[in-house]
Amino acid sequence: MGGPAKAPYPGAEMAAGHLSDLDVPTLWSALEAAAEQASLAVYVARVDCAPPRMIYVSERAAMIIGRPQPELIGSLPWAMLIPEDQPRIRELVARPPGAPPLLIDTTVLRPDGTLVPIECAATRINTHDGILTFGYFRDVTAERATLAALRQSEARFRFLVEAAPDGVVILVRGKVVFINPRAARLLGVPEGESAVGHYINEYLPPADAKLAGERITEMLRSGQEMPPNEYGVVAAPDRVVEIKSIACEWDGGPAVLALARDVTERKAIQRRLVEADRLAALGTLAAGVAHEINNPMTYALLAVQRIERTVSQLGLPGAAVSSIREQLGDIEHGIGRVASITRSLRAFARPDDAPPGPVDLAAVIARSLRMVDNDLRHRAQLVVELPEIPWVIGNASRLEQVLVNVLINAIQSLPEPGPHQITVTLRRADDQVTLSIRDTGRGMSEAIRDRIFEPFFTTRPIGEGMGLGLSVSKTIVEGFGGTLAVVSVPSAGTTVTIALKIHAGPPPETATLPSIEPPTRRTILLIDDEPVLRNVFSQLLSRQHDVMTCASGAEALLALQAGEFDVIVCDVMMQGMNGCELYRRIAVDHPGHERRVVFITGGTFTRDIDDFLASTPNRILTKPFNLESILATIEHVARTPGT
Q1: What's the rounded Cα separation, in Å, for the pair 595 and 597?
Q2: What are the backbone dihedrals phi and psi of residue 44, each rounded to the nearest 5 degrees, phi first?
Q3: Nearest to 456 by CA among 264, 285, 237, 239
Q4: In whole angstroms, what is the distance from residue 443 CA to residue 450 CA?
Q5: 623 φ, ψ to 5°?
Q6: Does pLDDT of 430 surpass 60?
Q7: Are 415 and 473 a contacting pair, CB within 8 Å?
Q8: What are the phi and psi torsion angles at 533 (to 5°)?
């Protein structure tokens, strides 16, 4: 660099004349020392000669350029730069006098091929010897590397934020200053940038906006994080967004970082889980209700039959007898309807696990039509197309339950006045049989049609439907490997199509109970904890048999110790010792007598009893049942060898 008394370049003395009375060597040394401390390299070039040349280069400048100082003195000002930058520097050096100072970025090419980015500031000085360019430059390699790393880091961060599955929003005084694409979609903003500058409250329902504002204010005031909260979205009313807010800084000021997640599906799953728990509880309740209803229905049905027999013995006029029997028929029909409801309740509580078998679907249809005849014949014309078809795979009683449900729905969909028509069509299609029930009723909108298979969903007034029919029916049919589909057009009617698989084997032989005339008088032990049912049973059965009644299993065991009985009719669900437990006690205390047990049940609601009844070979009668069924069953059991 030269000593402090030495002029840094030829003509420095002339320049000193323009610097008043200052000590030029001392001033130069001070400037050079200050530049060194600031890690700045210094150079001086004469630019009013051809070609321009370097007349001074500091030690730091020589170190950055990678050449000795003597080698640089007299060289071109741009000779040490990369070739592509040299034309630009030549143009800058050739600028006319009076040009403003420069601040440029360029790159030094060292002899070993190393590239060194530099930042250079230069200005011109007029001296007695000519025009000089006086400049500083510095190596910005580390700074550029840091900046590149920062930019790379920012790019990675932006990629992660923009690709994040959760929404990210930064708020300053309630306004959006940053929003990633996911957050924009959650808030229903077409273009994310369009939300910048808008208050976040604009995108939330009023109540949620108020709550969000209160929570953010409290968080900024107290400095404590707030737990996540769920909000609605104005643009998507069905959407639920969970937002977690964190206090942060943005451009040196307080801000809020909000992380948003779409929890709509999670909320739906939670609702379904809650509904499942509720339905499980309702299922248990439904089974209990079915059992309690079936007991009075049984003795009501038996009482109706008792009245029918009594009427024929009173000697009333024929017209009066017909009228009474018609009314009693209506009562029986009503009991059948209630029985259908309780079967639906039991099916809802615990679907039948019995394996499906061959079923005569035409016979099931005929029975189902008889059950709804009283309702149907006053409302619509019935058209039936039942060609001969093979047997299907299913369960006759369960399929009857399905058809009764569908037929009642069809009847109740018919508005007043008529005329209306219900068409029942049976067809074979390859390995399936399809049953279609079409009505000319009101039909359904798409919104209602989408929900018809939901348990407890109904469009009928309270008291006119439980909303179980189609839900249970679909479950039953699908349990047999079939399908149940509904097509409906508002004001044009509904068609329900049931498809069932054809049974591959030959139709089974129909099992019939032996008909014995006159019936043999038997000794019957009847066990039921329902007093009215015991009384009605006893009165009706006593005409043909000798009947002893017991209110509990303990009483029954005492009766069996005292005498013999041809048939033991036992209720399954009883307080204390239930029918299954009594059966096991009889098998131990009176071996062989357990085969004489006929179980009667109004519905069970425990898995162990269901499993027991499924495994026992004994006859089972489901309440409500008529007198003929119990009499035929008693005779069958009494006549079966080994009982």
Answers
A1: 6
A2: -135, 135
A3: 285
A4: 13
A5: -70, 150
A6: yes
A7: no
A8: -65, -40
Cβ-Cβ contacts under 8 Å for 80 (sequence gap 6 or more): 65, 67, 72, 108, 109
The beta-carbon contacts of 443-450 under 8 Å, at least 24 apart in sequence, are 443/413, 443/488, 443/489, 443/490, 443/491, 443/492, 443/493, 443/494, 444/486, 444/488, 444/490, 444/494, 445/490, 449/486, 449/488
Instruction: Identify the helix (H) or strand (E) that includes residue 547.
Output: strand 546-550
Amino acid at the residue 261: R
Residue with token string 């049919």: 477
pLDDT of the residue at 37: 73
Residue 471 tokens read as 């839900």
Question: 337-372 pLDDT, tens per residue?
Answer: 676 666 655 554 555 555 678 889 998 898 788 778
pLDDT band at 461 (very low <50, low <70, confident <90, very high): very low
Q: What is the DSSP string of 405-474?
A: HHHHHHHHTPPSS---EEEEEEEEETTEEEEEEEE-S----HHHHTTTTSTT---SPTTS--S-HHHHHH
Q: How buried is 604 (Cβ within 10 angstroms: 0-12 exposed, 13-18 middle, 19+ buried)? A: buried
Question: Average pLDDT of 146-159?
Answer: 77
HEC profile of 422-440: EEEEEEEECCEEEEEEEEC
Q: Which two tokens stand for residue 232?
A: 């609605």
Q: Rounded to 5, what percent of the chain is helix, strand, coil?
A: 45, 25, 30
Strand 523-527, strand 567-571: pairing: parallel
Block residue for tokens 């309270």: 462
State pLDDT tens for residues 22-54: 455 666 677 677 777 777 888 888 888 888 999
List, as one string, the DSSP characters of 497-510: EEEEEBP-SPPPPP
**Tell me: the pLDDT tens digits for 523-581?**
999 998 888 878 887 887 888 889 999 999 999 999 999 988 999 999 988 888 999 99
Cα separation, 520 vs 542, whole angstroms? 12
> The dihedral of CA 106, 111, 115, 121: what is its sign?
negative
| Location of structure tokens 């799953």 | 269
Least confidently predicted of 57-66, 104-113, 135-144, 373-382: 373-382
Residue 491 structure tokens: 């004001």
pTM of the model: 0.41
Tell the residue number behind the tokens 């209720």, with chain if given: 571
d(CA 22, CA 88): 36
Tokens of residue 512, six digits? 């019939």
| Six-digit token string for 78 | 């741009």
User: Of the candidates 384, 383, 379, which has an alpha carbon nearest to the alpha carbon of residue 441?
Assistant: 379
Q: What is the CA radius of gyration of the chain?
A: 49
Measured CA to CA, the distance from residue 390 to residue 403 in angstroms comes to 18
Closest CA to 178 of 190, 161, 163, 164: 161
- CA distance to 238, 359, 426, 500, 636, per residue, from 408 (Å): 35, 22, 18, 21, 35
